[in-house]
Amino acid sequence: MSAICFDVSASNRIDANKQRLLHHRNPEGRMQPHTIFALTALVVVYSSAGLASKNPRRTRGEFRQLDAKEIEEEELGELAQFAATTVAKAEKRAFHDAVLNITEAHQQTVAGWNTKMKLVVSETSCPIHNPFDVGQCIPKNASITRQCDVLVYERPWEHIKELTSFYCH
Predict the structure, then answer these.
(1) Where does the Cystatin domain lie (predicted)?
(2) Does the structure show a pLDDT above 90 at 162?
C-alpha cells in the first residue's frame, strides 16, 4: 500500500509541475525563462514578417506579379534564356531559341523561388549542342515567333535551377 501512496504522491508532484508550466510562472510569480525566450522569439518573428512585407521579393505564399522594371533586370533575362534553352532541348530541337521578350512574369517565394514567365521566342542559327551565346545566337527570322509559358524553380544558394513546366504554342 505504501507503494501506491508513493505513486499517487509522485503523480501529484508531476501534476503540480504541469500546472506551473501551464501558467508559465514559477512559485515566486515570475515568468519561466523558456516562456520569456518563446515570447522574445515571437516578437522577432513578427518583426521580421513586417520587414519582409516591405520587401515584396521576400514575401511567401502567392505568386506576385513582377513590374516592368523587374522584368527588365538582367537576372530575369538570364533565367528566361535558361528556360528557352531547356525547352528547346526537351523538344529535341536542332537550334537554340532566343528570348525576344518577357511579356509577363510572376514570382513566388517558397524554399527558393518559383518564377512563371510568358516568353516570346524565336529560333536562332546556333546548334543546340553548342552553348548559347547572346552575342552570336541571333534569331533566323524574328517575325516567326512562338509563345512559351514556363515555370522555373531555383535555389541559387544551392546552385539549383530547373525548368518545372512549360507549354509552347
Answers:
(1) 58-169
(2) yes
